[in-house]
Amino acid sequence: MRIGLYPGTFDPVTLGHIDIIERALALVDRLVIGVAINRDKGPLFSLEERVGMLQAECAPITARLGGEIVVHPFENLLIDCARDVGAGVIVRGLRAVADFEYEFQMVGMNRALDASVETVFLMADARRQAIASKLVKEIARLGGDVSKFVTPAVAERLSARLSRQAAP
C-alpha cells in the first residue's frame, strides 16, 4: 500500500490545500493529512477545529474520487510523523519560487534523517497559487470576501470565529 503524508497547519484549510489533497490522492492509496501542532504560529483555530474542518472537507473528496484520507495531528518531527503513519512519501504543495527555497532545505534535512522517505512536490493550480491561509485570515479579519479562497463551510467558520474575537 502506498501511503503519502501531506503535512501543514491548515489554519484554515483553503481551496489550494484541497487542490493538492485531490491530486495527491491520485498518487497514493492512503493519504494522511498531518495537522501540525505549531504553537509558535499561534493558530486561529484549535487543533480539534482544524482536524474537524479537514475531515468535513475530505469526506466529499473520498466519496467522489475514492481512496482513503486520514487526518492525523502531530507535534513531532515531520520525518518521525512519516515513520509513525508508514508514509513512504511526503507531499508538499508549491505556490511560488520562494516556497521552493524553503522546501529544498527541508528535503535535504529530511533525507539526512531518513533517506527512505521521498518528497514529492505538486505545483498549485494556477488559479490557486496566490492562496495562503495567512492571507485568507487577514482578508477575513478586515471584512473581505474569502469565498474565492475557501469553501462555504470554512468561510462560515472564519466569520463566526472572527465575530467572536471582535465582540467585547
Automatic annotation (TrEMBL):
<feature type="domain" description="Cytidyltransferase-like">
    <location>
        <begin position="5"/>
        <end position="138"/>
    </location>
</feature>
<feature type="binding site">
    <location>
        <begin position="128"/>
        <end position="134"/>
    </location>
    <ligand>
        <name>ATP</name>
    </ligand>
</feature>
<feature type="binding site">
    <location>
        <begin position="9"/>
        <end position="10"/>
    </location>
    <ligand>
        <name>ATP</name>
    </ligand>
</feature>
<comment type="pathway">
    <text>Cofactor biosynthesis; coenzyme A biosynthesis; CoA from (R)-pantothenate: step 4/5.</text>
</comment>
<dbReference type="GO" id="GO:0005524">
    <property type="term" value="F:ATP binding"/>
</dbReference>
<dbReference type="GO" id="GO:0005737">
    <property type="term" value="C:cytoplasm"/>
</dbReference>
<keyword id="KW-0067">ATP-binding</keyword>
<feature type="binding site">
    <location>
        <position position="9"/>
    </location>
    <ligand>
        <name>substrate</name>
    </ligand>
</feature>
<dbReference type="InterPro" id="IPR001980">
    <property type="entry name" value="PPAT"/>
</dbReference>
<dbReference type="GO" id="GO:0004595">
    <property type="term" value="F:pantetheine-phosphate adenylyltransferase activity"/>
</dbReference>
<feature type="binding site">
    <location>
        <position position="17"/>
    </location>
    <ligand>
        <name>ATP</name>
    </ligand>
</feature>
<feature type="binding site">
    <location>
        <position position="103"/>
    </location>
    <ligand>
        <name>ATP</name>
    </ligand>
</feature>
<dbReference type="GO" id="GO:0015937">
    <property type="term" value="P:coenzyme A biosynthetic process"/>
</dbReference>
<feature type="binding site">
    <location>
        <position position="78"/>
    </location>
    <ligand>
        <name>substrate</name>
    </ligand>
</feature>
<dbReference type="Pfam" id="PF01467">
    <property type="entry name" value="CTP_transf_like"/>
</dbReference>
<keyword id="KW-0547">Nucleotide-binding</keyword>
<feature type="site" description="Transition state stabilizer">
    <location>
        <position position="17"/>
    </location>
</feature>
<feature type="binding site">
    <location>
        <position position="41"/>
    </location>
    <ligand>
        <name>substrate</name>
    </ligand>
</feature>
<keyword id="KW-0173">Coenzyme A biosynthesis</keyword>
<comment type="similarity">
    <text>Belongs to the bacterial CoaD family.</text>
</comment>
<comment type="subunit">
    <text>Homohexamer.</text>
</comment>
<keyword id="KW-0460">Magnesium</keyword>
<feature type="binding site">
    <location>
        <position position="92"/>
    </location>
    <ligand>
        <name>substrate</name>
    </ligand>
</feature>
<dbReference type="InterPro" id="IPR004821">
    <property type="entry name" value="Cyt_trans-like"/>
</dbReference>
<comment type="function">
    <text>Reversibly transfers an adenylyl group from ATP to 4'-phosphopantetheine, yielding dephospho-CoA (dPCoA) and pyrophosphate.</text>
</comment>
<keyword id="KW-0963">Cytoplasm</keyword>
<feature type="binding site">
    <location>
        <begin position="93"/>
        <end position="95"/>
    </location>
    <ligand>
        <name>ATP</name>
    </ligand>
</feature>
<dbReference type="InterPro" id="IPR014729">
    <property type="entry name" value="Rossmann-like_a/b/a_fold"/>
</dbReference>
<keyword id="KW-0548">Nucleotidyltransferase</keyword>
<keyword id="KW-0808">Transferase</keyword>
<protein>
    <recommendedName>
        <fullName>Phosphopantetheine adenylyltransferase</fullName>
        <ecNumber>2.7.7.3</ecNumber>
    </recommendedName>
</protein>
